[in-house]
Design goal:
The chain has 331 residues and is α/β, with parallel strands linked by helices. It contains 13 helices and 12 strands. It folds into 2 domains: 143 residues, Response regulator (Rossmann fold), CATH 3.40.50; 144 residues, Rossmann fold, CATH 3.40.50.2300. Strands 7-6-8-9-10-11-12 form a 7-stranded mixed sheet, with helices on both faces. Strands 2-1-3-4-5 form a 5-stranded parallel sheet, with helices on both faces.
Length: 331
């Protein structure tokens, strides 16, 4: 009996979704979703994120080109382009805008205070004053945060455990945004407890990366922590290649860095978060107010180690890390 009730319930939900889509097509009103993406259109990780987003929306009854129109703009980690494309999207009057990274959120927030904005991969949205609180974001913004200020301490712990000889740690980051600075300040206070000297390796544009890494890597017994940002995501391959050239042990925010050849990553799944963002876009399209959509903080973090890269650096993965880590595919 319970099984029949369950099947009937699922059937009712599917029928309701189909009816909504049919009614919309009959009325000739195709809904519009804007996406402001931090990387390049050719980036395979971004392509997989978009595939997850589209497929989740389709499952919920929103097929691109039939029920909705997806307006996608790629800003490639450049703030000028992010601001330009945010204004373009606002002029298209979408029902909701999905943005990636703090840089994208800054651009979209500057362009509109009315159109609902759903963000992904934004650090400390409360501390940066993008929202009033996680439970009650207020305004026209909600979404999915990626890291909080305390995550920096975990990165320090992991890199020191992996490379005990390290006494100097650089943090590759864009200091323009409040969320990044809050994480940096939290890490500064923890540096002495790990017996490391902490240095900010500031980058404000893609053009800064090569010189910043080369300059920091001159001193021995150094390691690098890469913050999640539009600039680092858009230049993922460049950063991995540079630290390999300088033989610099590095920890990254997402596993797509270690899958490409980076040493260690500790963070959330960047593909899963797009499925969750699609569910918020669906609820907004169906009339849910932003006040009913709290900001969601990450609850699951994954440690990933690339054994091939560790070997190339002459490192032995500590048993304490090997026992709890996922090993990246050998590249």
């Amino acid at each position: 009996m319970r099984r029949r009730v369950f099947i009937a319930t699922i059937g009712s939900i599917a029928l309701a979704i189909s009816f909504d889509a049919f009614a919309q097509r009959q009325s000739g009103q195709m809904r519009k979703v804007g996406l402001l993406m931090e990387t390049h259109e050719s980036d395979p990780v971004a392509q997989q994120q978009m595939m997850n987003f589209r497929s989740t929306l389709a499952t919920l009854g929103w097929v691109n080109g039939r029920d909705i129109s997806l307006e996608i703009r790629w800003y490639s980690g450049e703030s000028t382009r992010a601001n330009q494309y945010a204004r373009v999207l606002v002029d298209l009057a979408p029902d909701v805008i999905v943005v990636t990274s703090t840089m994208g959120l800054e651009a979209a927030r500057s362009a509109t205070r009315e159109i609902p904005i759903v963000f992904v991969n934004v650090t400390d949205p409360v501390g940066a004053r993008y929202v009033e609180s996680l439970a009650k974001p207020g305004g026209n913004i909600t979404g999915f945060s990626s890291f909080d200020a305390e995550t920096g301490g975990k990165w320090l712990e992991i890199i020191k455990e992996a490379v005990p000889a390290v006494n100097r740690v650089g943090v590759l980051m864009d200091p323009e945004y409040a969320g990044y600075m809050a994480r940096w300040r939290a890490m500064e206070t923890l540096g002495p407890s790990f017996k490391v000297e902490l240095s900010m390796v500031a980058i404000r544009a893609s053009a800064d990366i090569e010189n910043a890494i080369a300059t920091f890597a001159r001193e021995p017994n150094s390691a690098l922590i890469v913050f999640s940002s539009a600039i680092t995501s858009a230049n993922r391959n460049l950063i991995i290649d540079l630290v390999a050239r300088h033989r610099l042990p590095t920890i990254y925010p997402f596993k797509n860095f270690t899958e490409r050849g980076g040493l260690i990553s500790y963070g959330i799944d960047p593909l899963d978060i797009f499925q969750r963002a699609a569910s918020y876009a669906d609820r907004i399209l169906r009339g849910t107010s932003l006040g009913e959509l709290p900001v969601q903080a990450p609850t699951k973090f994954e440690l990933v180690i690339n054994a091939k890269t560790a070997k190339a650096l002459g490192l032995t993965i500590p048993p304490s890390q090997e026992s709890r880590a996922v090993l990246a595919p050998q590249c």
